[in-house]
Design a protein that fits this description.
548 residues, five-stranded antiparallel sheet, 53% helix, Beta-Lactamase, single chain
């Protein structure tokens, strides 16, 4: 590269100086020609002022004595030389000379008399021609002198520029060579000392390009892996840098915060996180550089946010705890309802027993009636506790299930036989149409499911009502002509302790847990249950026992 720079510099300097010299020569020649024209005109004017028509010799001698480089010639109208500063007489006729044919115009031609190129200018005065000439050799000598000195200057300047380039190129290329050496170490290329700097650079940069492409491809692959992982976790994840810009975010976090596919990378986190409580915690973390957590709700969903400050970044995990939250709420409601449901019969039992024990009730019929009510409430308490335990067992993941092949028709008939008294008491007509469908289930769970549905159909039915039971291809339909369910209550009938008609179900010994048990059994075995009801007309339960 250094050699190329010297060559290029030499060529550029040489061409520049050569052009400058050429222009200077042209300028000198042009200027000399202009000077010659001016001098010729001045000499000619001087000659015309001196010449009076008869003093040819005097005129010539006067001008020649003041300027020896000029030639003055006076020619009569016939072309005969009357006087000449170069020779004493000339016999040649001069009328054919171009300067005499075209007066007052300068001509350049070779003079046979003097043997040099001359500039000629002539005019007519007092019946004669006056001609003035100066040699061209004087201009040529000036140009030659300029060329000689210019060439010398060109060589000196050229030499100095080469020396300067050599001197400074060492200082310039020394760090460049160091960088090339570093590139060589980085790329592992053993570059020959004969290789030019630009070739070394080209080889190094080519290798660097290949290495960078490999690194970029590797980084892109790692980036895709990271995005694959964070987009497949069921938690929201956000990474915010020290400048409060979002570095990473997964799809789950976008959905939780109410966005779809917007690109928030590189934007301030406030574009994404609109919750003021979370914003305040993030700002606090930048100060305390610690961990924190909080909870927030959004669109009937409940989330827990874990935030940690690490290496100038804030990592945020958003976990959907809706199920746990709902479970806690359900347990709270369950215990509230359970305590209420158990408190009512217990209060009745204690009340009647106090009346008997304190002798307030003395009549045998009153005592018998109080005792019956006490036993009834005790049985109801017992049934509530049994069904609560059953419900707890169904919810337990550790509960083992003993699967059996159960014929649906047999379980339905067995349940109907046990409920014959209640059916006859309300004069209910029971119609069945059942095939031999068989399912795999724990018989105790299936009996519980059928019992609760038939109990429900009996309790909420009308006097002289009907119950229609069909079993086809593992699909069970139990339809009654009872009081029905209002549309606003349909979504709540599977809740624990929820009753459509509270007074009626209590009188019939209902606990409010029957349909909750039905729902949990269906969930446990993957059955699909649907309810169709018209208020005042009746209700239909459809259980598809073909597993999802």
């Amino acid at each position: 590269m250094k050699r190329k720079l010297i060559i290029i510099n030499t060529v550029v300097v040489f061409v520049s100086l050569f052009i400058m010299l050429l222009v200077s020569c042209l300028f000198v020649v042009t200027n000399s020609q202009n000077d010659a024209k001016i001098k010729l005109n001045e000499y000619l004017k001087m000659a015309t002022r001196i010449y009076n028509g008869s003093n040819s010799e005097y005129t010539v001698n006067s001008l020649f004595s003041s300027e020896s480089n000029i030639r003055i010639t006076i020619i009569d109208s016939n072309g005969t030389v009357l006087a000449d500063s170069s020779v004493e007489s000339l016999e040649t006729n001069h009328l054919d000379r171009p300067e005499l044919k075209d007066l007052n115009n300068i001509y350049t031609r070779y003079s046979d008399t003097l043997g040099v190129n001359m500039y000629y200018l002539a005019c007519e005065d007092n019946g004669a021609y006056i001609r003035v000439a100066i040699p061209e050799a004087k201009v040529d000598s000036e140009v030659l002198e300029l060329v000689l000195f210019g060439s010398l200057a060109l060589l000196i300047i050229l030499g100095l520029s080469i020396l300067i380039i050599i001197h400074y190129s060492k200082r310039i290329f020394e760090p460049l060579n160091l960088q090339i050496a570093k590139f060589s170490d980085l790329t592992g290329i053993n570059i020959s000392s004969n290789t030019s700097n630009e070739e070394k650079l080209a080889l190094s940069f080519d290798k660097i390009h290949d290495i960078l492409e490999d690194k970029i491809e590797e980084i892109e692959l790692e980036k895709n892996k990271v995005y694959f992982v964070i987009n497949h976790i069921n938690q929201g994840f956000i990474l915010i840098d020290n400048y409060k810009k979002i570095k990473l975010i997964n799809k789950e976090a976008l959905q939780i915060l109410g966005f779809s596919n917007e690109n928030f990378i590189g934007k301030d986190y406030m574009y994404l996180v609109r919750n003021q409580e979370i914003q305040a915690k993030i700002e606090e973390l930048y100060l305390i550089k610690d961990n924190c957590e909080l909870e927030f709700s959004n669109k009937n969903k409940h989330y827990k946010v874990y935030m940690t400050y690490q290496e100038n970044n804030i990592c945020i995990f958003i976990v959907d705890v809706t199920r746990d939250f709902n479970m806690i709420q359900m347990k709270k409601e369950f215990f509230d309802y359970a305590s209420h449901e158990l408190k009512s019969p217990l209060t009745t039992i204690i009340g009647y027993q106090q009346l008997i024990s304190q002798g307030i009730l003395t009549d045998s019929k009153e005592i018998e009636d109080a005792t019956e009510r006490t036993i009834k409430e005790a049985n109801r308490m017992n049934q509530i506790i049994i069904e609560m335990l059953e419900l707890s067992k169904l919810e337990s993941e550790d509960n083992p299930i003993n699967l059996e092949n159960v014929k649906i028709k047999d379980s339905v008939n067995l349940c109907l036989d046990s409920k014959e008294y209640q059916v006859n008491e309300k004069k209910i007509e029971v119609n069945t149409d059942m095939d031999d469908s068989t399912i795999e289930i724990a018989s105790s769970d299936f009996n519980q499911l059928i019992k609760n549905l038939i109990d429900n159909a009996i309790i909420y039915n009308k006097e002289n009502g009907k119950i229609n039971i069909t079993v086809k291809n593992n699909i069970i339909t139990i339809e009654d002509t009872g009081i029905g369910i209002k549309p606003e209550n349909l979504d709540r009938i599977f809740e624990r302790f929820y009753r459509v008609d509270k007074s009626k179900s209590k009188d019939e010994g209902g606990t409010g847990l029957g349909l909750a048990l039905v729902k949990h059994i269906c969930i446990l075995y993957g059955f699909d249950i649907k309810v169709e009801s018209s208020f005042g007309i009746g209700t239909k339960f459809i259980i598809n026992c073909n597993k999802k």
